[in-house]
Specification:
The complex is a heterotrimer of chains A (162), B (206) and C (69). With 206 residues, chain B is α+β, with helices and mostly antiparallel strands. Chain B contains 5 helices and 9 strands, in the order E-E-H-H-E-E-E-E-H-E-H-E-E-H. In chain B, 30% of the residues lie in helices and 32% in strands. The radius of gyration of chain B is 17 Å and the shape is globular. With 69 residues, chain C is mainly alpha-helical. Classes of the chains: A mainly alpha (162), B alpha+beta (206), C mainly alpha (69). Strand 1 of chain A pairs antiparallel with strand 5 of chain B, so a sheet runs across the interface.
């Protein structure tokens, strides 16, 4: 177990970190993942629903405030984030791109790749759940959820390559 | 069983404040979900912005296609892997998986085991690209120190090895790791090793 | 991480092998055995996935498959 170190020791260490990004590990494409260049293009498996959800949270907007901001119905805003089979309309993507200054082409790609959001309903409900207590070994249920996420990501990458 | 944690700190570069953080001795479902629901969308947004700006690809984030859900699933119950995460402000800020079964390359320790960093990634908002600033500084030193301490705990004398992403090479050099040069077997990434002397120097109390 | 204790019976030859490895790897005997367990489990998991364990001679490039039980 680690030796107790002073806060001052840690502050000196963390301030040694340079401005650039820190990372390590093989960057080879792995089974089930898109190749690095394809991954760079498609934003590494992001779903449109997740992107919109994060965007909304960052803007500090409720779902109805977001719907109003991008000029869509509340039911559509809810469907984008919550309905795994919802197909987002081009018009909606245009509104979101314009409101938040994103490239329409890029956002179209993102929405297009995930036209049918491929996370199953069980995962969709779980994924925005509050953080649970940290646990050591995953329970059977957690492992199922984890495997569903893994499968969804792999399936998406396979379709992108097909 | 819950994961053990140890208190650490990060520097918030927007405010200059020191924020409390935790080194977690494991990667659990909440961390994987943070990767899936927060890291990936943020990375997508960064890449879209970089593309818009016409930034050349070598300057783009070089991680992000790592599937942490798969890496954690693969490592479940495999005692040769250990995993770590860094959390702060209610969010996972960095992840690391290490392998205890790889040998050192340094001549005086050749064939002896070391802690090999399989993958180390910080959250997209903690990386800086083409003018954007990182949010938190410090996850890199926290995780590298954790790897060195694990190496000492396991009797490996502080030896750590890793293949650096090109944008991180200067960090590992500054930490005292020895550069073995590009490794043709690993996409020509430079391989670095921390010797036991280097580990002692890194951990020395000031 | 909590630890548990096990008593191990080894033959003379096994104990000698353990001692030699302990010196070569600069590890305690306990650490050698823990490392052996990690390696065995890791290799077993990979073979289970369908990978083959192969030795390759660096000079001749001859390959020999290792059958892992």
């Amino acid at each position: 177990m680690p030796i107790e170190r002073s806060k001052e020791w840690w502050l000196a260490r963390i301030d040694e970190e340079p401005d650039g990004p820190i990372g390590a590990g093989s960057i080879a494409a792995e089974p089930g993942e898109a190749t690095s260049s394809a991954a760079a293009e498609e934003g590494s498996g992001t779903t449109f629903a997740e992107f919109v959800h994060l965007l909304r949270r960052r803007e500090g907007l409720s779902i109805d405030e977001f719907a109003e901001a991008v000029n869509i119905d509340l039911t559509e805003a809810q469907a984008i984030e919550e309905d795994p089979y919802y197909c987002v309309e081009g018009r909606t993507v245009w509104y979101i791109a314009r409101k938040f200054n994103f490239s329409q082409a890029k956002l179209n790609d993102l929405a297009g790749v995930t036209v049918a959001n491929d996370l199953d309903p069980h995962v969709a409900q779980q994924r925005f759940a509050a953080r649970s207590e940290l646990r050591g070994r995953l329970s059977e249920e957690e492992l199922d959820l984890l495997n569903a996420v893994v499968r969804a990501i792999q399936d998406r990458a396979d379709r992108a390559q097909a | 069983m819950t994961f053990e944690t140890a208190p650490r700190f990060l520097r918030d570069l927007e405010t200059g404040d020191v924020v409390p953080a935790d080194l977690v001795y494991g990667i659990g479902l909440p961390h994987v979900m943070d990767w899936h629901t927060a890291w990936q969308p943020a990375l997508g947004a960064i890449k879209a912005a970089l593309h818009e700006q016409g930034v050349p690809k070598p300057e783009w984030p070089q991680t992000g296609h790592w599937n942490w859900a798969a890496k954690v699933a693969e490592a479940q119950d495999i005692i040769g892997f250990r995993m770590f995460s860094v959390t702060a402000a209610g969010m996972t800020q960095a992840l690391m998986r290490v392998d205890l079964t790889k040998p050192a390359r340094m001549e005086d320790a050749s064939g002896r085991p070391l802690v090999y960093v399989d993958y180390l990634e910080v959250a997209p908002w903690n990386q800086s690209f083409a003018g954007t600033r990182k949010k938190y500084r410090g996850a890199g030193p926290i995780l590298l120190t954790a790897a060195v301490e694990l190496s000492i705990d396991e009797g490996f004398k502080g030896r750590v090895g890793l293949h650096s992403l090109p944008q991180s090479e200067s960090f590992y050099e500054k930490q005292g790791m020895i550069d073995f040069g590009p490794d043709a077997k690993v996409q020509n990434l430079r391989y670095y090793e921390m010797t036991s002397d280097g580990a002692q120097a890194l951990l020395a109390q000031e | 991480m909590s630890k548990r204790t096990m008593t191990l019976n080894l033959t003379e030859a096994e104990m000698r092998a353990l001692e030699v490895l302990s010196v070569r790897k600069d590890l305690s005997k306990t650490a050698v055995l823990r490392q052996a367990l990690r390696l065995y489990q890791m290799l077993d998991a990979r073979v289970e996935k369908g990978d083959k364990l192969v030795f390759e001679n660096d000079v001749t490039r001859d390959k020999a498959e290792l059958m892992l039980l």
